[in-house]
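Figure S4 source data
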Amino acid sequence: MFPKHLIMSACNYDDNVYISLHVKTIFRNPKVVKPYVVPSPEYCNLPAAAIQASSDMIVVVDSNAPAAHVAQHKWQPNTPDGHGTPFLFQRGKAASGSGGGPLRRMFKGPTGTGEEWQYPQALAFGVSGIRSQAIISITCDQEIITGGHADNSIKVISSDGAVTLETAHAHCAPVTCVGLSSDSNYLVSGSRDTTILLWRFHKELPSNSSFISESSTGPGTPSSRNNSSSHLIEKNRRRRIEGPIQVLQGHQSEILSCCVSSDLGIVVSCSETSDVLFHSIRTGRLFRRLDGVVAHSVCLSSEGVIMTWNELQHTLSTFTLNGVLIAKTELSISTSISCMETSHDGRNALIGINPLQNGRANGGNLQSSKETAIDIRSESEETHESNIINVPTPAICFLDLHTLEVFHVLKLKEGQDITALALNKDNTNLLVSTSDKNLIIFTDPTLSLKVVDQMLKLGW
C-alpha cells in the first residue's frame, strides 16, 4: 500500500505544480532521463499492445487483442517511494475467475507462478493477420476500444474487469485499426471493407438518468408512436458510441492506420495501395490526398504535423495539413518502427525502433524491403546522405517533428524489442513495454524531489 501522506500530496496537484511539470518534460533535457524497471514484471500483464498512464493509474492491455487481458496498476508519478524510485507503483490485483473462470482453469491444469497471476480477459473472437497495436485505443476514462473482431464490430470494454460494455456494428469486414482523438470525443475505425467510419464517443451517463417524460397515451396513437421513436433516439444518445456520423471513402484496399483530431477537425488515414488521405470531420469529405505517398502507419500532432512511416521503403516523413513535405529521413534496412508517439505540445515525437525478426516486421517481407530500400537509398545518397537514422536497436529516438533530426536516443538491451510506449499527460514520464515482458519507466529522478519540495512550500 502507498503511504497515506504520499498519496494525499501526490493526488492534490494544483495549477502551479502542473505548470512546473509541464516545463520540465522529458523532451526539455532528455540527457537526465533515467530508466526504472518496474519490479516483478511477470505480474504486470506484459508484453503490452497498449498502455495508458493517468495521474493515478496505469492501464495495460496485453498483445492478445481483441481477446486481451487488461490490468489496472496504481501509481503516483514524480513521487519518490523512499527506496530510490521516483514514483510509486502498486500492481493490480488478479480477479478470481479471470481469463475464463473455472472452466478455463480446469483445462489449463497446473501453471507456474507468473501464469497463475491472470488478469481479466475480454471475451472476443478475433481474426488473423491484424496487428494488436492497431486495434486498441484507451479513452480518457480508461475504457478500452477494440477492433479485430470476427463479427466486424467495435467493442468497448472496461479496464477494471474486461467486461464488454458496448458493441457497435457498421463495417462490412473486420476492423483493422482504430484511433481516438486526444479528448476522446471522436473515434475512427478503419476496415478491410476499405472504408473509415467516424463515430462520436460519449462518457457514460448515470444509469438512472432519463429524459423521456411518460404520458398516458393509448396504444396505436400518433403520440404513442412518437414516444416510441423518442425512446429509441434517446437510447442511442445514451450510448458511448454514437454513429457512424460520417463514412469516409477514397481508399482502395484494407485500412492500415487512422487517426483523428477534434481541434484540427480532420481524419488522416492510409492503406497499402492508396495514398494518404485527409478527411473533414464536419463534412466527411476528402479534402487532401498525398499523391504517391504510401504509408503503413500515420500519426498526427496537436500542431497539425502528419508523420508517416513507410515500412517497405524504410522512410519516415512529415507533412503539413496542406500536403507539403516538411522533412524526410530513412532508417537502416535492418530495422523497423514499432511505435510512434507525439508530444503534448506537438513539436516532438518518439519512435520505437526494433531489429527485423526472421525477415519480417509488422507483416512486411524482408527481401522486398531490402530491394526497395537499397533502390531508394542509391537514388537519394547524394542529397540525403546525412539524413539517415542509424542507431543500435532496440531503441527509442527523440525527434524534432519539423526536421526529423534525432536529438536523443534511449538504448534498450538486446532482446528488449519495444511493443508499446506511452507518455503521461504532462510528458514527464515515458512508459515502455518490451517483448521480454518488462515495463520500463523513463523519467528525470530529480523532478520528483523538486515537485515534493514545491508542494511542501505550497502547504501540502
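Figure S5 source data
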Amino acid sequence: MAHGKSLLDELKHPGRTAARLSRRSTIAVAAILLAACGNRTGSTSNAGAAGVPALISGATTYTLAPQPAPAPTPTRQVKVAAHAFAANSSGTDMPVLTTPPVATPARGTLVLVQALTQRAATLQTIRDNMGNTYQQIGPSQTYADGKAGSVLFACSDARGGAGQAWSLVKADGHAADEASIYVVALTASSGVGAWSYSNTVPYNTRTPMTATKAGCVVVSFWGPSDYSGSARDPLNAYYAPPGWTLGGQNDNSFNQNSGAYAWIPVSEANTVLDPQWSSKKSVKANGSMWLVEVRP
C-alpha cells in the first residue's frame, strides 16, 4: 500500500520521505499448473534497498473438468480457471506493470481485474494482450487515508488463450509510483452479480454482501493499509479467510500497495458473506476491500 506518514511528519522530514520512497523489493512466484501458489525467490532491487525486491508477481492456471451434461433443472457452478498478479514498489520506474502469462479458455471467461495504486491519479487504463475491453465496476475508490487508489474492472465473454497477460498502464508522470494488479478468470459465468466496497475497517467489510444466486463464486480483493514493513523486514504474512481459497498475495508491506485475493463457491442464494482476513503484524483500519459475486 502507499506508505506515506502523516502530513506533519512529511512536512518536517521531506528528505526522509523521499529516501523512504526510493527503497524497493522483488519476489517472483513461478507460474505453476494444477496447483496454487509457487515458491518465493529473491533478487536484487533496482530501487536501491539492499535485500529488498522491487517486483513481485505470480500466476496459476487450472485444468478444469468438463461441465457435466445438463440435468433437467441444472445449477451451473462457476469455476476459477486462472489467476495472476504483479506488484511494483514505489521508486521502481515501471510505466506498465504486467502479470506473468497464463493459459485461459479461448472464449467465454469472465475476468476480474483489481488495481491498487499509490495515488488515485496513478492508473491510466487496464488492458490485456487478447484485445478485450474492461468495464469498471462502480466508481473509483480510495483507501489509506484517501491517498491510494482502488479500482475494480470486469470483462464478460473474454477472449483467451495460451500466454494471456494483463497490464496496468500508469498515467504520465507516475511511472515510478507503486502499484498492484490482481486478476481472476472464471468459467461458466453469466456475469457479475452483487458487489461491495469498504475502506473503513482493517480486515473485512463495513457492510456484509449477500449473494444473489446459487452456484456463484464470490471473490475478495483485500488491500490492507499496511505500514508494518521496513527495508530489513518487508514482509507481513497475510492469511485468507477460513474456508476461502487464497489466490495470490504480495505481502511486501514496505512502500508497496500490498494485497491479496481469495474466493469461495456459494451453493445457496441469499448467503451473507463477510470474510475476515488476518495478518501476522497488524494493519490500519482504512484498507481496501472488494467483494464481487460472479453468477452462473
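Residues 2-48 have pLDDT under 50 and may be disordered. The first strand starts at residue 27 and ends at 29.
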